[in-house]
Amino acid sequence: QVQLVESGGGLVQAGGSLRLSCAASGRTFSNYAMGWFRQAPGKEREFVATISWSGGYTVYADSVKGRFTISRDNAKNTVYLQMDSLKPEDTSVYYCAAATLVTPQTKRYDYWGQGTQVTVSS
After folding, report:
1. How far is CA 108 from the centre of its chain?
2. Dmax (CA) of the chain
3. Roughly how many angstroms between the first and final C-alpha of the chain, as a whole number?
4. Residue 41: is it exposed, middle or buried by C-beta count within 10 angstroms (0-12/13-18/19+)?
5. pLDDT (tens digit per residue) in 42-64
6. pLDDT at 1
7. Which residues are CB-contacts of 79 (< 8 A; sequence separation ≥ 6)?
């Protein structure tokens, strides 16, 4: 089992920045690829970014490419999502998740956090 706890969400104005953190406990964190997803009210959960176990390989959704940066610190069992140039359409609950491979597919992720709300005002 891997337990994941997100933090860092909040209210920010358009154009602003936030950094989300996801702390992991349980099984060896460095064995897992990590992903960030988001879900807005009435919409399906969507892929945001993923990072390999080593941190050397990342994939981003087109909607966030160039604005968001995923990173990880295996010594701290933590994955981050730096979000810059935020837009109102980025408003969602953001979830981190763990998988055994790097993939944008939601169904491939075995463990999920409880989510953190990000609200971007115009």
Report:
1. 15
2. 41
3. 40
4. exposed
5. 999 999 999 999 999 999 999 99
6. 85
7. 21, 22, 24, 34, 36, 51, 70, 71, 72, 73, 96
